């Protein structure tokens, strides 16, 4: 397993993260456990901020909170001076509860409800990324009713397809997101928005996909957006102050993944902006980006305890852990690949090839196929790396499995930032009609 950030094997042969021995973390918090390397999260935030400062362009880096949205994470992101993207009232509520400054919150989504728009207007968030005409009309009407002006970006699809898994591509024309540049719908949206009394059109937004390893997709998106911006200036005399290029910067999950350094993505984007907006544009726009995965992905490690195993001679050996698709649905959803090691036996040589299964009643509940490990015993600790993004945030209670705890580790300290769910949490929303009620048979 590749050791990210502060991860290392200590003198006892145990995996250590943020100066905390994972065997001790299991003793304190139990498993499964999400362990987040706080120093690495902060480092990634700073890499983005520093790269943009070096570009000389005005900018905002907005952390896409959907990757991992809990109050402590919002605090870290605020502490590092980033902005924050939310896509639902739940994420907005979390950010506001964490005291995140509303003027640095941006609201995304292809189907924001009237209630969500109201809540965000009342909270006076910094910007709405408007996705479609119905939303634009709804937002205009609500803002008028409240007699306020709201900042908006228009989400456009520039017709760029990122080289990535089909399910996580959104920049192409055939997408549920945004106004298409190619078919004139984006032009019409600019016309409507710039004529709306209560909407202040700041600019455009484009997000071309996720887990992207090259810069050409971003450069192409900038060129399309710039070309469109020039057309809009020519035909409508409307200029944009902000261009948001979304997220999607790739990370290293396994050996085959070859991400660029954060600074290289940022330089490619800012250079492209300088190049394509240079001619005929009154002022270089402010650049916003929205990294999610690349801020938290490699900072997360999930710690499991090994339970049963099943050896099918000549076929394969299944080793089951005390979690699975409930805490990490990505292998089942996207065939995502992960690396892992025995956290309590970091110095032992690999001796067998096993496949890691979860504990859910579902054959698809597999975390890793064909993993080289030392001879695994019941009670060993398995650490799966790179689980910081889209794991806790996508976790479910399938099979009524309780969601794990999350700890931040740094400088030898661990702090619980999400407690493990209790049995009470599991039934907290259940109601039983009086006519079939009975006393609990277990307390
Ligand atoms: C998901 C998403 C992001 C973040 O993507 P990552 O791959 O996690 O960086 C940013 N912007 C938008 C609009 C998104 O939908």
TrEMBL record:
<keyword id="KW-0456">Lyase</keyword>
<dbReference type="InterPro" id="IPR002986">
    <property type="entry name" value="DAP_deCOOHase_LysA"/>
</dbReference>
<keyword id="KW-0210">Decarboxylase</keyword>
<dbReference type="InterPro" id="IPR022644">
    <property type="entry name" value="De-COase2_N"/>
</dbReference>
<comment type="similarity">
    <text>Belongs to the Orn/Lys/Arg decarboxylase class-II family. LysA subfamily.</text>
</comment>
<feature type="binding site">
    <location>
        <begin position="290"/>
        <end position="293"/>
    </location>
    <ligand>
        <name>pyridoxal 5'-phosphate</name>
    </ligand>
</feature>
<dbReference type="GO" id="GO:0008836">
    <property type="term" value="F:diaminopimelate decarboxylase activity"/>
</dbReference>
<dbReference type="GO" id="GO:0030170">
    <property type="term" value="F:pyridoxal phosphate binding"/>
</dbReference>
<comment type="pathway">
    <text>Amino-acid biosynthesis; L-lysine biosynthesis via DAP pathway; L-lysine from DL-2,6-diaminopimelate: step 1/1.</text>
</comment>
<feature type="binding site">
    <location>
        <position position="362"/>
    </location>
    <ligand>
        <name>substrate</name>
    </ligand>
</feature>
<dbReference type="Pfam" id="PF02784">
    <property type="entry name" value="Orn_Arg_deC_N"/>
</dbReference>
<feature type="binding site">
    <location>
        <position position="293"/>
    </location>
    <ligand>
        <name>substrate</name>
    </ligand>
</feature>
<dbReference type="GO" id="GO:0009089">
    <property type="term" value="P:lysine biosynthetic process via diaminopimelate"/>
</dbReference>
<feature type="modified residue" description="N6-(pyridoxal phosphate)lysine">
    <location>
        <position position="66"/>
    </location>
</feature>
<protein>
    <recommendedName>
        <fullName>Diaminopimelate decarboxylase</fullName>
        <ecNumber>4.1.1.20</ecNumber>
    </recommendedName>
</protein>
<dbReference type="InterPro" id="IPR029066">
    <property type="entry name" value="PLP-binding_barrel"/>
</dbReference>
<feature type="binding site">
    <location>
        <position position="248"/>
    </location>
    <ligand>
        <name>pyridoxal 5'-phosphate</name>
    </ligand>
</feature>
<comment type="function">
    <text>Specifically catalyzes the decarboxylation of meso-diaminopimelate (meso-DAP) to L-lysine.</text>
</comment>
<keyword id="KW-0457">Lysine biosynthesis</keyword>
<dbReference type="InterPro" id="IPR000183">
    <property type="entry name" value="Orn/DAP/Arg_de-COase"/>
</dbReference>
<keyword id="KW-0663">Pyridoxal phosphate</keyword>
<feature type="binding site">
    <location>
        <position position="390"/>
    </location>
    <ligand>
        <name>substrate</name>
    </ligand>
</feature>
<feature type="binding site">
    <location>
        <position position="390"/>
    </location>
    <ligand>
        <name>pyridoxal 5'-phosphate</name>
    </ligand>
</feature>
<dbReference type="InterPro" id="IPR009006">
    <property type="entry name" value="Ala_racemase/Decarboxylase_C"/>
</dbReference>
<feature type="active site" description="Proton donor">
    <location>
        <position position="361"/>
    </location>
</feature>
<feature type="binding site">
    <location>
        <position position="330"/>
    </location>
    <ligand>
        <name>substrate</name>
    </ligand>
</feature>
<comment type="subunit">
    <text>Homodimer.</text>
</comment>
<feature type="domain" description="Orn/DAP/Arg decarboxylase 2 N-terminal">
    <location>
        <begin position="40"/>
        <end position="296"/>
    </location>
</feature>
<feature type="binding site">
    <location>
        <position position="334"/>
    </location>
    <ligand>
        <name>substrate</name>
    </ligand>
</feature>
<keyword id="KW-0028">Amino-acid biosynthesis</keyword>
């Amino acid at each position: 397993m590749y050791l990210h950030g502060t991860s290392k094997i200590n003198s006892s042969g145990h995996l250590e993260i943020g100066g905390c021995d994972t065997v001790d973390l299991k003793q304190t918090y139990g498993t499964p456990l999400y362990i987040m390397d706080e120093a690495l999260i902060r480092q990634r935030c700073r890499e983005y901020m520093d790269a943009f400062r070096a570009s000389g362009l005005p900018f905002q880096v907005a952390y896409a909170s959907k990757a991992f949205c809990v109050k402590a994470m919002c605090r870290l992101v605020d502490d590092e001076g980033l902005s924050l993207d939310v896509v639902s009232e739940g994420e907005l509520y979390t950010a506001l509860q964490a005291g995140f400054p509303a003027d640095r919150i941006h609201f995304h989504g292809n189907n924001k409800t009237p209630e969500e728009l109201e809540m965000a207007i009342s909270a006076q968030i910094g910007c709405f990324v408007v996705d479609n005409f119905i939303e634009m009309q709804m937002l205009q009407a609500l803002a008028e009713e409240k007699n306020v002006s709201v900042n908006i970006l228009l989400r456009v699809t520039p017709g760029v397809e990122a080289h990535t898994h089909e399910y996580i591509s959104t920049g192409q024309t055939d997408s549920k997101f945004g106004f298409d540049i190619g078919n004139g719908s984006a032009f019409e949206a600019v016309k409507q928005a710039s004529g709306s009394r209560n909407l202040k059109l700041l600019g455009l937004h484009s997000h071309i996909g996720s887990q992207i390893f090259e810069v050409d997709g971003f450069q192409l998106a900038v060129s399309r957006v710039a070309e469109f911006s020039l057309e809009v200036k020519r035909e409508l005399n409307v200029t944009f102050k902000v261009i948001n290029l979304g997220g999607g910067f790739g990370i290293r999950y396994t050996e085959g993944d070859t991400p660029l350094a954060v600074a290289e993505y940022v330089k490619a984007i800012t250079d492209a902006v300088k190049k394509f907006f240079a001619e005929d544009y009154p002022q270089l726009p402010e650049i916003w980006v929205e990294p999610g995965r690349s801020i938290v992905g490699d900072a997360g490690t999930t710690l499991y305890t090994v339970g049963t195993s099943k050896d099918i001679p000549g076929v394969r050996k299944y080793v089951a852990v005390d979690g699975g698709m409930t805490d990490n649905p990505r292998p089942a959803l996207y065939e995502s690949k992960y690396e892992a090691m025995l956290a309590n036996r970091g110095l032992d040589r690999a001796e067998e090839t096993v496949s890691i299964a979860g504990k859910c009643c579902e054959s698809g509940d597999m975390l890793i196929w064909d993993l080289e490990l030392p001879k695994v015993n019941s009670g060993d600790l398995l650490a799966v790396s790179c689980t910081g993004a889209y794991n806790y945030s996508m976790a479910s209670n399938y099979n009524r499995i309780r969601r794990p705890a999350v700890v931040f580790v740094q400088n030898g300290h661990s702090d619980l930032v999400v407690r493990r769910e209790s049995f009470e949490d599991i039934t907290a929303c259940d109601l039983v009609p009086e006519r079939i009620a009975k006393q609990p048979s277990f307390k």
